[in-house]
Amino acid sequence: MSRAIELSDVVVELETEEHAAHISLTVDLREFVVLLGPNRSGKSLILELCAGLVTPQQGSVRVLGEEWGELSDHARMKLRTRIGTVLQLPGLLSNMTVFNNVALPLRYHRSTLSDRDLDRVVMGHLQALGLAQLRDRFPAQLNPGEIRCAAIARAMVLDQELLLLDDPLAGLDAGMVQRLGEHLANRRQRGPFTVLATMRSYSPFLELADRVAVVRAGQIEAIGARSVIAQKGGAEMSAYFG
Amino acid sequence: MVAWVGQKVLDSLHYVWALWGLVSQALWDLIRPSEQGRREAFRVITRQILFTGVDALPVTSVIALMLGIIIITQAGTQLPQLGAGGLVGSIIVIAVIRELGPLVTAFIVVGRSGTAIATELGNMSVGREVVALQLLGIPVARFIVMPRMVGMVAALICLTLYFDVVAVLGGFLVAKAKLTIPFDAFLDGVTRALSLSDVALTALKPILFGSAVAAVCCHHGLSVRSSYTEVPQQTTRAMINSVTLCLLLDLLITVPTYL
Q1: pLDDT per residue over B217-239, tens digit each?
Q2: Residue B153: Cβ-neighbour burial (10 angstroms; 0-12, 13-18, 19+)
Q3: Architecture of domain A1-82+161-168+193-242
Q4: Which H or E run contains A164?
């Protein structure tokens, strides 16, 4: 398996959108790909297809070697433990503290882990993302950037092989963006780790990406190295590349 | 008109089928031999029992006591005048232990915990917390529905028993001033009128009511899609449907017992 994601001739018709999405995309293992484009262009849809939340009308969606459409419920749940996903609304559980939110996947899927090891793993992620001092706060007591970072920590706590991030920089301050970039880079150094993220405007974070795909009107218009795409895009895309 | 009635019947069948799906999935999750998430589920069950059972003791005590006083006073004063004083025990068993105990306790639970479950899950759905759980590979049925159902059934069994005891004994003690029947004779009448089937029904009804209420409230809570304004709407539906379903189940149990 050399591909983390393979979307082949995927067609999705959404009631809420005027246009149908036609998508083909491959992301190699260990790659960091950013989907870049304006609001409502279909970036989130691509992420939701990869996360198995949306079933396409046509085409195939293969993630980490598994075809979503062919999996049983049990197999889907199993695959999801290998994929970390943070949607635009991160969905931290409101009745749990930051620590318990991040610890939840470990408590559920690695019930044999000792409390000491669990604490070490969770605090490692929280410290790396600058949330250690907020460990006992509830989501209602956090700002949007902190909520997003906590959700990213939760999405990485099982050492997932693939991370899907929908607008990961929304609400993050400059320090948070830097810490997130470092945390992702560290994780990529430790082993196979693929990232697919969406962005809707320029950020230095974009420079971490191996490839950038420009998404507009439900289609991938261009994909390649950031510098190449920035030149191809012309004046219209210049705002996205800084 | 015929089409409208037909559509309503179909909708009701779909609804009952969806509820049965939740109950059967919860049962399967309860009995299947998997360690995954067992500790987390146990934590939720404990919290549910605490909230549905222990926290409801004060309100249950007050309602049981008032109901007990009313029924025992009525039966204890009216029946002897008709020469049927010996039937007081039977009336207590039939009215309180067989019928009102399980039913009123279920209504208390619907009002307190059922609505709380529907609201909590509705807010979780809008906040994308339920989707987030799925994305973490945590099945909603196992993590959300099953523990709430088990907790509610366990709490309802205990609460019903508690309700019966408070209504019968507490009601008698408070109404004693008006009654001419001595306590020993009253207790003897009640225990003699109480059969094994009454005890079985006292256990069976809370199991059915608890499962139904939990399934209905979870179903409506998880049905909320995109707006917080849907939450009170679904909560109201959950409450009305829970009460209706409890009455329907009671009817289905009680009528065959007497036929």
Answers
A1: 999 999 998 899 999 999 999 99
A2: buried
A3: 3-Layer(aba) Sandwich (3.40)
A4: strand A162-165
CB atoms B36 and A92 under 8 Å? no
Taking the domains of chain A in order of start, what are their residue ranges?
A: 1-82+161-168+193-242
Residues from chain B contacting residue A111 (CB–CB below 8 Å): 35-39
Residues in chain B: 259
Q: What is the structure's pLDDT at A240?
A: 67
Residue A133 per-residue DSSP state: G
Domain tally, chain B: 1
CA angle at residue A115 from A114 to A120, to 5 degrees? Answer: 100
pLDDT computed for residue B189 by the predictor = 78
Average pLDDT over residues B120-128: 95
Residues of chain B contacting residue A106, judged by C-beta atoms under 8 Å apart: none
Residue pair A5/A51 in contact by the 8 Å Cβ criterion? no
pTM above 0.90, yes or no: no
Residue A160 Cα, gap to closest chain B Cα (Å): 10
Q: In which domain, by residue range, is B251 found?
A: 2-258
pLDDT tens digits for range B207-219: 999 999 999 999 9
Q: How far apart are CA B94 and CA B194, in angstroms?
A: 9
Mutate to test the interface with A, among B51, B135, B142 (most CBs of A within 10 A): B135
Those residues of chain A that have pLDDT short of 70 are 1, 15-18, 232-242
pLDDT the model gives residue B182: 76
Task: Please tell me if residue A171 touches chain B, with a CB cutoff of 8 Å.
Answer: no
- CB proximity list for B102: less than 8 A, separation 6 or greater: B160, B201, B202, B205, B206, B209, B250
**B121, pLDDT greater than 90:** yes
Query: Across the interface, do B128 and A87 touch by the CB < 8 Å criterion?
Result: yes
